# Entry
Amino acid sequence: MIIGLIAYGGFHLVEYATGGSYVEYLSDNAETVALDENFSYELMADDISKNKVILVGEIHGFKVPCDVDVDFFKYLHSVHNVRHYFIEMDFVQATLLNTYMESGDEAILTEVLKRWAVIQGRNNQDYYNKYVAFHQYYQSLSAEDKFIFVGVDRIQDLGLTVEYVNKLFDQPIAVGAKINTDSLFQQLDLAAERYSHAADTLLLLHNVKRNVQSLKNEVNREEILFDNFHHLYRHHGLAQFKVYGFFGLYHIFQYRVSGADPLASKLRQSDLGLEGNILSVNFMLNESYTAMPSNALPAFMQDEGKYTRMAIGADNMLFMYIYGIKDFKRMTPEYHKSLIKMNADDSPYEDSNRLNLTIQLLPVTELFEMNDKGKPYVQYTIFVRNSDWAAPMGQ
# Structure
């Protein structure tokens, strides 16, 4: 035990003692504000101008990323003319979300979020409020300045998809415990004939059919995300424009993670001409709380209710300790957040194992393994201290 304590103390002492140059770099390349304030984003303005695709990766279940998402998109929309928001929803969910932007009918928003892929975002007040805020912003814009959500996820709610298709045709498909995909394909083909002169509806039907086929063939989710992004990016003719995407953290890394290529890595290597034109921003949170589905936790860790308000940080050796986290804590005060440029010319991280070494004594979560050491997985990090959870409704 004594040897273990000495080793533990020595590890932290070495990390702290060798962190001076890293703290200095982070401080010189960061914009730090209180949690309830907004970034100016001046730090990244030049990089945004030089890139075509801006991707932000959140860790689901925290409040602060919800707030930053709205504020950052407003900045990108008003300053950099971004009009397309690629979202971690399926095609019909995103189509209905756009309908909600127009109508303000919150029953539509509730239906969209009911079976969303982001489990923490279902029946959640902060995620719900996020889209209400987007609606309010949308309504303030002139017709020529409106934006759209582009859904690229695999089908999450097949019942909702069928209900949407049924509204286009007068021979509805039964929505029960099990939906017959062959009947759905037949209905889609019939609807395509009926709407052969309606380009927008044909696009919707075509994308629904492609995604039902992928669902039936059990295509890997990351491949579906890429295929949909690739197809819709081309369809909308976005090569000459900037687009924004907000996804779970894994999807925005630009190189291999745990032996596989995330969405951003696939986009970087694709024929879309995005090599060197993707700007990835990751969230890293400490001393914060997340909404964790209670049934995913051991009984002794569960709160009463469907979700547990779980303390999360990147400095807990039992669950996750990112080597170098102390450097971020030393330059960001409590109840603050920092937007940090990670790839400046004088970055000490280029040839360092800081941020690449993760320690976990209790294997309760799967850790990311960065396979392409030294590669620019992200260009910016948003480090957050003391975020509250994204609060579930009625809990």
Q: What stands out?
A: The mean pLDDT is 91. The CA atoms of residues 88 and 153 lie 5 Å apart. DSSP finds 13 helices and 13 strands in the chain. The longest strand covers residues 278-286.
